[in-house]
Amino acid sequence: MSHLYSFIIVMLLSTACSSDSSIGPTINDGNEQPTESDPVYYSTDQFVMGADLSYVNQILDHGGTYSVDGEVENPYKIFADHGTNVVRLRLWHNPQWVQDEVYEDPEKPLYSGFEDVKKGIEESKTQGMAVNLDFHYSDIWADPSHQDVPAAWMEITDIEVLKDSVYNYTYQTLEKLNDEGLMPEFVQIGNETNCGMMFTNAPENFPSLNGCNGNWENLGAVINSGIQAVREISANSETETKIILHIAQPENAEWWFENITADGGVSDFDIIGLSYYSQFSDTPLSGLSSYIQSFRTTFEKEVMIVETAYPWTLENADNYTNIFGENSVEPNYPATNNGQLEYLTDLTRAVIDGGGSGVMVWEPAWITSNMKDLWGTGSSWENNAFFDFNGELEPGY
Question: How far are the Cα atoms of 87, 238, 272 from residue 212, in angstroms, in the given order?
């Protein structure tokens, strides 16, 4: 929607200015309060207003277009122009299935593989935005229920070898990016690692990284290997990269971070990253700020929402069934343009009230197109995007 981030920023400016948190956002002082027609943009040090744009390159390759007032524009530029200061991009180890299973075409790019992500980083930085590089440490989606071992590491049986593999992969990836001036400002070591990493398809003798089974020492050792690689590259880079550890839903975070810091021995990270989808969470929006404040106090880390979304309609633009349906609509936030805006505004206000450091919306550019994944053609998320079914940025309010 046009000026969505700008509008949220203006609405929240007075709230943010009144915050006295040491870790939370700070706003440049000024004698005049901005108006909606005079938007104020945050720097990443003040507050992250982020968007996960991992699908954009694939959408553009398959007929999708983005426009503002009827004029086709570069989607990265659209987000930068409307207040986005961080682009989040997922990285899979070797997503060969994109060519073999989805497109059955060896000429297709390996979307969310290194070259595709590098292209997204270049586009983002060209538009003046920072980057959050999300290492999934998997060849495919990593989430609380799916943490698959990359095919290249399936034969590993020794935790030391696995640590070295994670270190070398992380180091080499970032080294290549840094050599081209593309070092990300944020790096996630894992994605929604609620029970751990690399365990859902692990062979019997693969080192167990399942914290839910008590394997915190192994999990911590692997996470620390990734962290070490980030720190070493960042030390020789012009970019001082912040490290994020990411858990889905606030109610799961305290238990996880208590265990990973104590039994796992992990301490050298900067940000507690949370997925927050209130529709799937035991934490109501009204309780989010207290969770964030508690995490900041307990763990003395920044706290950031690195995934969230809300629908603006319950209609479909294609035959790919939408993930967010009727049961995803919260009371007082109808599935309308205004409902989406009010929800994201209130969520951002809750993060600021809790002293949090930012919000990243998940895939707000996943419009319908001829792109494919393992489950369908088009988009299962277009009703959560910031664009209408024709790829037009929604009108401002």
Answer: 31, 38, 19
Q: Among residues 123, 192, 363, 382, which one is catalytic?
A: 192
Q: Strands 71-72 and 67-68: what pairing?
A: antiparallel
**Closest to 92 (Cα-Cα) out of 117, 109, 71, 74:** 117
Rounded distance between C-alpha atoms, residue 214 and residue 236, angstroms: 36
Residues 6+ apart with CB under 8 A from 41: 6, 9, 49, 83, 85
Taking phi over 0 as left and psi of -120 to 50 as alpha, with beta for the rest, 50 belongs to: beta
Do 84 and 128 form a contact (C-beta atoms < 8 A)?
Answer: no
Q: Is 192 a catalytic residue?
A: yes
Q: What is the pLDDT of residue 41?
A: 82
pLDDT at 394: 87
Within its chain, how far is the Cα of 332 from the centroid? 26
Element (H, E) at 258: helix 253-262
Pick the closest to residue 247 from 183, 215, 291 (CA basis): 291
Distance, CA of 320 to CA of 337 (rounded, Å): 21
Show the low-confidence residues of the chain (pLDDT under 50). Answer: 1-3, 10-36, 397
Q: With contact defined as beta carbons under 8 Å apart, do 379 and 317 qualify? A: yes
Q: Which of 123, 185, 302, 307 is catalytic?
A: 307
Cα–Cα distance measured from residue 23 to residue 302, given in angstroms and rounded to the nearest whole number: 6
Domains present along the chain, CATH in parentheses:
4-384 (3.20.20.80)
Q: Which helix (H) or strand (E) holds 122?
A: helix 114-126
Q: Does the reported pTM lie above 0.90?
A: yes
Q: Can you give the pLDDT at residue 220? A: 98
- Beta-strand runs (E) in 12-107: 48-52, 67-68, 71-72, 86-91
Task: Report helix angle 253-262 to 216-235, nearest 10.
Answer: 80
CA 141 to CA 146: how far, in whole Å?
A: 7
Cα 4 to Cα 45, 160, 375, 385, distances in angstroms: 20, 47, 30, 12
Taking residue 147's Cβ as centre, other Cβ atoms within 10 Å add up to 26
